Amino acid sequence: MANILLAEDESVLRMLITDTLEDEGHQIVEASSGKEAMDILMAGNTYDLVILDYMMPVYTGLEVLTKMKTMGLKPVPPVLILTAKSQQSVREEVVASGASGFMSKPFSPMELAGKVEAMLNEVEK
């Protein structure tokens, strides 16, 4: 079981992701904005994985990732970026930011579960 922070501003998608990953046995902490995600991270909680929407209110997913790296988290958890933007330039920006993974919306719940498991297994190595 992994402890996962999910920051997604679309409530229906957040619920789908949470239900999918809880069915896989993970514990999910939800945030509805980049600011809320930062508040949760700054409270000192630790996570095995962070899932961030690319475009959110206040702070984007990439801004949250950048702030995570500068706030002294030890270790910085892997980050999966979700986005409806599928342009090559967005993929390059996500990779350059240091995100561990990238998924384009829409995606199937099983595709997401598989990606999350692969990322968690990579961390354990």
Write the SSE topology.
Elements: E1 3-7, H1 11-23, E2 27-31, H2 34-42, E3 49-53, H3 61-70, E4 79-83, H4 88-97, E5 101-104, H5 109-124
Parallel strand pairs: 1-2, 1-3, 3-4, 4-5
Helix pairs in contact: 1-5, 2-3
Please, could you describe this protein's structure?
Residues 3-120 form the Response regulatory domain. The modification 4-aspartylphosphate is found at residue 53. This is Response regulator receiver domain-containing protein. This protein is an alpha/beta fold. The longest helix is centred in the C-terminal third of the chain and has 16 residues, at 109-124. The protein is built from five helices and five strands; from the N terminus they run E-H-E-H-E-H-E-H-E-H. It is globular. The mean pLDDT is 92. The chain has one domain (3-124): 3-Layer(aba) Sandwich (Rossmann fold), CATH 3.40.50. Strand 4 (79-83), helix 4 and strand 5 form a beta-alpha-beta unit.
What distance separates the N and C termini?
Answer: 16 Å
CATH class: Alpha Beta
Largest sheet: 5 strands, parallel
Strand content: 15-25%
Strand order of the largest sheet: 2-1-3-4-5
Number of E-type strands:
5
